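We now fix the convention by which a protein and its fold are recorded. Think of the row as the fold of the chain written in a discrete alphabet. Here is one such record, which you should read through line by line.
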Amino acid sequence: MPGFETVQKKKILNSQALKLVQHLWELIESSDEIYGDLIKSPLSRPLFIAAEFGIPEIVIELLHSYPDLLWKVDSQNRSLFHIAIVYRQEKIFNLIYEIGAHKDLITSYRDNNNHNILHLAGKLAPSDKLHVVSGAALQMQRELLWFKVIVQSSFWSQISQFSCSLSI
């Protein structure tokens, strides 16, 4: 089956890429100079690059190795989840459900323009993401679906914050 071979090759390539990332990260961690510069430098944030391009394996590996990266923001004061929303990277955004109660804090972050994740979800997607589907109606449907997911996750965060304040 021709489709099966393509999927199998892609899985092998993804597996090899993940092993490469893990090995490179081990090398970076073993070099204090490179590691410190990499984490501190706002210009070379591998976490944000991986979030922008939708590579969850790299994001997971980085967060696993250095959990404090979850709280890092870029030069515009956006978390990795804000970046995932801006670039419509569903696989990255879905990681928010795995971080537990921290989700409530991260979803309430506001960037330098005072925008939270709902504002960013309400903006038009980048053109490369819009043109994945043809036709304005399908593009609008995709955008509405994306916004609905963000609203629901934000809504449940606000409900849990509200119920916590009631119990205090």
Summary: The chain has ten helices and no strands. Residues 158-168 have pLDDT under 50 and may be disordered.
